[in-house]
């Protein structure tokens, strides 16, 4: 009985009962027995959808009841607000909740007043680096999906963050939630935690493989689903689930495929299955939903999604805008959308169960591997775990697809009978340690090499490894790098090696930059600093610059500037110090931040190499730094890939249509947003770093700021003021500008009919915009939109 739980705020047990939690699930019971409501640390390794969140809530609520403060670490930013909304129901019991999003360089001081804080591991890491005062007050930390410590990109951050939190707060209760993995005991060992491990699920799961005319399930049963030659296996299985009524309703399906493009084409194909099975009422509601989807953005992706959804089928992948994603997830939970074709991102965390899960692709292209690679067992198990909606379905079914008998046997061996892989720490790699070693020193967790190594001893890596020397060796390599780049100072006098972050090292750590990104940005900015280029005269560079003998070095920039720029007379170039400094343009800055390891560059497709080589030489004068030699294959390709990314950003800042950008670069609207956000963040960091570059002038700093603002709004320079008004945005700003309204001040004074005309007669929008611009009387009552044309002419 939840109401008999002790240690929680009064009434929580009753509230749980009211929500339908009549009794605790067995793994929850085991967690309580292990002391989770009594400050005990715990690792809960249980299947998807078996109530891990409630285990975390019990821990956090009891900790708060004892006067403490809890932190819930989510694996994805998209989940942070979802979790916050879920925990907000406890506000009724005076438990306050806050979510930490936003910039990586703030200390989130306001969160000090919250009882429960939700954040990603990157955000927590940055809060520690920026000295968030409340970190010391934490009494309970929850790590959701802790098996992701295995991820080579993001795992090390989670690992180091947990180690830091535990070091600052020795009595900290640590609750780690994990999928069922091969070595949950090692994780428990690392965190000094009790272990609750279980295969229990609230709803039965049957896993099987389809081949030929039937699905064979793991319990030995069979289900006939005949597929004739030339028929589509997936379509038959989706149709079969829909035609099997339980509770008067057919079952929905979730189809996992290996790429975004496959998700989209699968969704389109499956409209043939879902469309004819819709009721009239469903059709009406889906038409409304489709309109809503089209309203989110004006892109092909949006249009394709709406077309499929109108027929009861949808796709879901990381290229979708977040509004699109949540519309799809909600409509699928409401059983309005009958089938979702998804990439594996959906399997991670989002709560969207279906009666039947179909794992259509169990191999995926892997660039590093150089071919198709089978998915991890853990990943496939998580997909399968999405099958079965408690309270709605009598059971869940997960089906893998085989096209011959041998593959059927292989799939049983590889996935159905197999245990998930053990989790392995990825900390002992240079990119991960580069950033974490600097942050550890800068935040005062280590002042000597020995201290650093003993701090690293608190990580999962140290718990797991047999090779004691490896971590120390990589750490030393990284220390050399940080020293050479001026981020760390080492004092080798005496027996113990002392370590300290330099001023710029502290800045880099707080900005949350990979030190290698910071070094790249600093180098780029130095090429436009006065003393780095021509100084007072051109002979000076030639004599002093060791690279001056190389073709073009040092001179290219101003020869080209002369060609492109306003001042075309070459004889004047060396004379004036100002002319010799290369022009700083948005493209130069976008290219610079795109070539840092903090940006995922776009890939070069076939034909791109030629195209961007040409762009590269055409616009060389704008690029900050020397173009690598074409013979340095990898570096040159990287340079071009960054240029492609930089051009995408430039297009965005030049008001090119989202759709056009998506098509030109082969990306989705969600990707554009992601690239823009990252570049904005890096340019903000560049502005701060610029203060540490000797010889940089104020104009350059202004250029950096303006290049960032243009990305923020996706507009040309002249629209910056207008686009900053809430609800205006890039397209409306342009239309207002064309109607003669050029600034926020103009908006306050403008003829209302003109405003209305520029906003295509949308009264409510116009009123809201006028209000946001600070107009005293935003009401549009009595304004005749038809008069706008004549008004605009006056
Ligand atoms: P997990 O985090 O393990 O994937 P969730 O915590 O999201 O799973 O739980 C899945 C669903 O089960 C949620 O809708 C939750 O409200 C419900 N649930 C959790 N515990 C119980 C319980 N003891 N009784 C009934 N429903 C529960």
Molecular structure report:
There is one protein chain. By secondary structure, this protein is of the alpha/beta class. It folds into five domains: 2-197, 3-Layer(aba) Sandwich (Rossmann fold); 205-416, P-loop containing nucleotide triphosphate hydrolases (Rossmann fold), CATH 3.40.50; 430-510, Arc Repressor Mutant, subunit A (Orthogonal Bundle); 521-533 and 581-714, Sec63 N-terminal domain-like fold (Orthogonal Bundle); 723-793, no CATH class. 46% of the residues lie in helices and 10% in strands. The strands form four sheets. An eight-stranded mixed sheet has the order 10-9-8-17-14-11-13-12, sandwiched between helices. It has a seven-stranded parallel sheet with strand order 3-4-2-5-6-1-7, with helices on both faces. It has a two-stranded antiparallel ribbon with strand order 15-16. Strand 8 and strand 9 form a beta hairpin. Helix 2 runs parallel beside helix 3. The longest helix is centred in the C-terminal third of the chain and has 22 residues, at 669-690. The N and C termini lie far apart (75 Å). The chain binds adenosine-5'-diphosphate. Residues 20-21, 24-25, 28, 48-54, 351, 390 line the site of adenosine-5'-diphosphate.
Care to give the gist of this entry?
By secondary structure, the protein is an alpha/beta fold. 46% of the residues lie in helices and 10% in strands. 46% of the residues are buried.
Strand order of the largest sheet: 10-9-8-17-14-11-13-12
Net shape: globular
Portion in helices: 40-55%
CATH class of the largest domain: Alpha Beta
Annotation field: number of helices = 35
- How many strands, what sense, and barrel or not for the largest sheet? 8 strands, mixed
* Ligand identities: adenosine-5'-diphosphate
Q: Rg, please? A: 29 Å
CATH topology of the largest domain: Rossmann fold
Question: Distance N terminus to C terminus?
Answer: 75 Å
User: How many domains is the backbone divided into?
Assistant: 5
Give start-end ranges of low-pLDDT stretches.
533-579, 790-794
């Amino acid at each position: 009985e939840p109401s008999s739980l002790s240690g929680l705020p009064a009434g929580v047990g009753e509230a749980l009962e009211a929500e339908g939690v009549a009794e605790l699930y067995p793994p929850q019971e085991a967690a309580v027995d292990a002391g989770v409501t009594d400050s005990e640390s715990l690792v809960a390794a249980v299947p998807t959808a078996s109530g891990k969140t409630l285990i975390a809530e019990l821990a956090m609520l009891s900790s708060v009841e004892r006067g403490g403060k809890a932190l819930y670490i989510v694996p994805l930013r998209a989940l942070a607000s979802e979790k916050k909304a879920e925990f907000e129901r406890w506000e009724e019991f005076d438990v306050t909740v806050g979510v930490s999003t936003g910039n990586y360089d703030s200390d989130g001081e306001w969160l000090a007043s919250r009882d429960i804080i939700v954040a990603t591991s990157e955000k927590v890491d940055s809060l520690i680096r920026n000295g968030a005062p409340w970190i010391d007050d934490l009494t309970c930390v929850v790590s959701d999906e802790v098996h992701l410590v295995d991820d080579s990109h993001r795992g090390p951050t989670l690992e180091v963050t947990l180690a830091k939190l535990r070091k600052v707060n020795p009595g900290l209760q640590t609750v780690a939630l994990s999928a069922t993995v091969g070595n949950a005991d090692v994780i428990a060992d690392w965190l000094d935690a009790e272990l609750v491990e279980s295969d229990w699920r609230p709803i039965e799961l049957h896993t099987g493989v389809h081949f030929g005319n039937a699905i064979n399930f793991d319990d030995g049963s069979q289900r006939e689903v005949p597929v004739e030659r030339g028929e589509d296996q997936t379509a038959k299985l989706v149709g079969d689930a829909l035609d099997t009524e339980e509770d008067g309703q057919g079952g929905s399906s979730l189809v996992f495929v290996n790429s975004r493009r496959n998700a989209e084409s699968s969704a389109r194909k499956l409209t043939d299955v879902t469309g004819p099975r819709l009721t009239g009422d469903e059709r009406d509601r889906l038409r409304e939903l489709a309109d809503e989807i089209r309203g989110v953005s004006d892109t092909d992706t949006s249009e394709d999604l709406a077309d499929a959804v109108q027929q009861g089928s949808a796709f879901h992948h990381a290229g979708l805008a977040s509004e699109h994603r949540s519309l799809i997830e909600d409509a699928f939970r409401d059983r309005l959308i009958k089938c979702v074709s998804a990439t594996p991102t959906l399997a991670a965390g989002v709560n969207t169960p279906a009666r039947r899960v179909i794992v259509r692709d169990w191999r995926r292209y892997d660039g590093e591997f150089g071919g198709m690679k089978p998915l991890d067992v853990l990943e496939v198990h998580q997909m399968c775990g999405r099958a079965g909606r408690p309270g709605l379905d009598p059971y869940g079914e997960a089906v893998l697809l085989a096209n011959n008998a041998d593959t059927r046997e292989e799939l049983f061996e590889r996935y159905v009978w197999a245990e998930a892989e053990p989790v392995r720490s990825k900390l002992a790699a240079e990119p991960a340690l580069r950033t974490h070693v600097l942050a550890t020193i800068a935040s005062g967790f280590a002042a000597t090499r020995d201290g650093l190594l003993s701090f690293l001893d608190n990580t999962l890596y140290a718990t797991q490894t047999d090779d004691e020397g490896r971590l120390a060796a990589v750490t030393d390599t990284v220390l050399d790098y940080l020293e050479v780049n001026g981020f760390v100072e080492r004092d080798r006098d005496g027996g113990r090696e002392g370590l300290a972050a330099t001023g710029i090292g502290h800045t880099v750590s707080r900005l949350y930059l990979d030190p290698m990104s910071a070094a790249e940005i600093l180098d780029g900015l130095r090429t436009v600093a006065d003393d780095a280029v021509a100084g007072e005269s051109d002979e000076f560079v030639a004599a002093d610059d060791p690279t001056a003998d190389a073709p073009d070095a040092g001179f290219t920039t101003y020869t080209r500037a002369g060609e492109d720029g306003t001042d075309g007379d070459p004889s004047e170039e060396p004379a004036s110090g100002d002319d010799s400094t290369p022009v700083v343009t948005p493209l130069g800055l976008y290219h610079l931040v795109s070539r840092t390891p903090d940006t995922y560059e776009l890939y070069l497709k076939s034909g791109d190499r030629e195209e961007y080589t040409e762009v590269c030489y055409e616009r060389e004068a704008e690029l900050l730094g020397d173009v690598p030699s074409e013979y340095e294959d990898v570096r040159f390709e990287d340079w071009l890939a960054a240029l492609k990314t930089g051009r995408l950003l430039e297009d965005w800042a030049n008001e090119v249509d989202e759709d056009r950008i998506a098509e030109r670069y082969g990306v989705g609207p969600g990707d554009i947003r992601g690239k823009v956000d990252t570049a904005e963040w890096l340019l903000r960091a560049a502005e701060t770093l610029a203060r540490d570059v000797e010889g940089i002038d104020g104009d350059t700093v202004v250029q950096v700021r303006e290049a960032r603002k243009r990305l923020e709004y996706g507009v040309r320079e002249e629209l910056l003021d207008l686009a900053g008004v809430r609800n205006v945005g890039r397209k409306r700003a342009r239309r207002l500008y064309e109607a003669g309204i050029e600034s926020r001040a103009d908006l306050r004074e403008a003829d209302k009919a003109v405003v209305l005309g520029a906003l295509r007669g949308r009264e409510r929008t116009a009123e809201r915009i006028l209000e946001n611009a600070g107009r005293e009387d935003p009401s549009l009552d009595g304004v005749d939109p038809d008069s706008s044309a004549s008004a605009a002419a006056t």
